[in-house]
Amino acid sequence: MPDFNLPTTPSTTWPVPWNSWLASLSRADDSAPSSSRSLALPLSGNVSQAIDPWTMMLRFMNAQFGFINVYMGKSSDPDLEKEIIDDVGTYGRQLGQLGDALEVLIDVMPDAVRAKLTANQKEAIDAALFQLKEIERLKKARNRRQ
User: Fold this and answer.
1) How many domains does the chain have?
2) Within 13 Å and on the Cβ side, how many CA atoms surround 37?
3) Nearest 5°: CA angle at 142, between 137 and 145?
4) 100: Cα within 13 Å, side-chain hemisphere
């Protein structure tokens, strides 16, 4: 590495201030034409930055306003999704009603149709019924505790 013989700390014994060579490269000289300035070091020009505390705070907190926030994933139309949740029902309520309707359809399925199902199809129906029974069990257990 070349040795430029520059002191690493300011010194009063050196006849030229220790950083004058750096300042002379980045300083625009009023007497010189503007085209003579051909070198601009990083951070040598005017620096302006808009400081928006709300944006910085939200970025820091990952846009969380409360202590508990539920992230419901990305949606192609978040306003419509919010309206559906507010007016129709929460995801749990919607899934519960779909589960109830599925249970009715499975109960009224004729035995002839049930006999024609493949093993994977029967397994899928059994898994759905198992989940519906477990949800019902948990609801009853909660109601007993309250």
Assistant:
1) 1
2) 16
3) 130
4) 7
